[in-house]
From TrEMBL:
<protein>
    <recommendedName>
        <fullName>Branched-chain-amino-acid transaminase</fullName>
    </recommendedName>
</protein>
<keyword id="KW-0732">Signal</keyword>
<feature type="signal peptide">
    <location>
        <begin position="1"/>
        <end position="17"/>
    </location>
</feature>
<dbReference type="Pfam" id="PF01063">
    <property type="entry name" value="Aminotran_4"/>
</dbReference>
<dbReference type="InterPro" id="IPR043131">
    <property type="entry name" value="BCAT-like_N"/>
</dbReference>
<comment type="similarity">
    <text>Belongs to the class-IV pyridoxal-phosphate-dependent aminotransferase family.</text>
</comment>
<dbReference type="GO" id="GO:0004084">
    <property type="term" value="F:branched-chain-amino-acid transaminase activity"/>
</dbReference>
<dbReference type="InterPro" id="IPR036038">
    <property type="entry name" value="Aminotransferase-like"/>
</dbReference>
<keyword id="KW-0808">Transferase</keyword>
<dbReference type="GO" id="GO:0009081">
    <property type="term" value="P:branched-chain amino acid metabolic process"/>
</dbReference>
<dbReference type="InterPro" id="IPR005786">
    <property type="entry name" value="B_amino_transII"/>
</dbReference>
<feature type="modified residue" description="N6-(pyridoxal phosphate)lysine">
    <location>
        <position position="233"/>
    </location>
</feature>
<dbReference type="InterPro" id="IPR033939">
    <property type="entry name" value="BCAT_family"/>
</dbReference>
<dbReference type="InterPro" id="IPR001544">
    <property type="entry name" value="Aminotrans_IV"/>
</dbReference>
<keyword id="KW-0032">Aminotransferase</keyword>
<dbReference type="InterPro" id="IPR043132">
    <property type="entry name" value="BCAT-like_C"/>
</dbReference>
<keyword id="KW-0663">Pyridoxal phosphate</keyword>
Amino acid sequence: MRLTSALLFSAIASVSAFTAPTPHAQVSRLNTQLHVAAETKPLGKPGTAKLDTDWKDLGFEFRPTKSNLRITYKNGEWGEFEMSEDPYINVHMGATALHYGQACFEGLKAFAHEDGSVHVFRPDENAKRLQSSCERTLMPVLPHDKFIEAINEVVRDNIEYVPPYGSGGALYLRPLLFGSGARIGLQPADEYTFIIMVMPVADYYKGGLSSPVDGILITDFDRAAPRGVGNVKVAGNYAADMLPNMRSKKAGFPIGLYLDAATQSNIEEFSTSNFVGIDSENKKYVTPKSSSVLPSITNKSLMKIAEDEGLTVEARDVLLEELETFDEVMACGTAVVVTPVGSITKLGETDEDTVKYTFGESQEEVGPITRRLYDRVRAIQYGEEEDKNGWLYKIN
Ligand SMILES: *Cc1c(COP(=O)(O)O)cnc(C)c1O
Ligand SMILES: *[C@@H]1O[C@H](CO)[C@@H](O)[C@H](O)[C@H]1NC(C)=O
């Protein structure tokens, strides 16, 4: 009896050792061939896709392109790239992403330069941030080089959809990674899906920064707890923000500012962008330092440019009352680079309790430092200013 089962076991083991890897090996060989074929194909031209609108009129919304890229994690390893034309994904209804929010995403852009080459802004930083989101939510880390290669592949395949130089647009890349395997008890999944979807977007400001927006202080909700997940780009953070965000908009304030959850005394960040305050007199760029703020790559880049412009950069606790010391306030993130903020209102029970902080002399005009920082980031992205810091990754 013991002998039989031992024999049976070794028979199964040897069969599976022989058969199991074979289909897998064939699949990956096939993919490698496709991959090689794609790489040797000459690079196409940006801005040549046929759209139903002008490049300048694109909004910030989904629109079909040629393909999206997918990689599946199974049996303890990441598979090969697959290019898909299907905007739908087929996932198990028990997927951990759907029930428990085991999911994260990134956002970055590709820009066409005057010579027709295409460059992605700081993908290394997105690769690192994606890894920290994966670590915090027990998802397998996508290797850095694989992330960069995937970015190259998906932009290359959709190069016609990169808005042409001069249109002010960009190809927005939205990588996402989530638990696609089923688990009903609270546990990490054993299967994951990584996708990069891409879409062309126009210049948010159509040629120049628009007038500052009015912000509101969110006083009845918190975005993130001090030791929670605010510092990683995980899906649940945005579900928590939908109600306060929509309420702010309905009240006439396009942007909401959060305070720290523990003390309600320090500024944290806006819903989906970091807070920056400029003190022009003392030539300071001030941004909150907090364990529950999402480390923005735009903020990091602006900090560097601000230093270059001779400003002193301070990343530290910023008290709410300090709002009155700022001459310019901006919200920064990949989608817009910067949104000038003209005022922030703290609603009280009565009109008398309501405080409105205003920045600069005019709430109609964009401050000079905001404008300067914005122009320089854009010039680097479009290849009009030398990329001294090596921020651009050239699609090849
Ligand atoms: C994505 C995001 C930002 C902006 O980050 P960038 O890397 O500059 O695009 C800021 N705050 C939050 C909460 C975010 O999700
Ligand atoms: C701005 O970005 C830097 C670098 O990512 C970070 O250290 C700092 O805390 C950020 N400020 C805010 C408000 O996120």
